[in-house]
User: Which sequence fits this backbone?
């Protein structure tokens, strides 16, 4: 389900979005705004999770997981 909302944006932001749409880098204004909001939602969740992890103290299981992932991503 989706809902239509009205949002006022400064001219320079509308011009930026319109340029991306015109270049084919965004399907539409709505698609771009949705994508930007979803990205911000993920960023907020990641920031919250990071804050939780920093206050949780040392976790040997998480340390092992982090080392495993780091070893998989290591470039030779």
Assistant:
């Amino acid at each position: 389900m989706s809902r239509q909302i009205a949002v006022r944006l400064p001219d320079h932001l509308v011009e930026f979005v319109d340029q991306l749409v015109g270049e084919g880098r965004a399907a539409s204004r709505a698609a771009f705004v949705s994508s930007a909001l979803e990205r911000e939602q993920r960023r907020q969740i990641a920031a919250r999770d990071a804050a939780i992890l920093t206050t949780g103290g040392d976790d040997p299981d998480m340390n092992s997981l982090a080392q495993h992932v780091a070893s998989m991503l290591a470039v030779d």
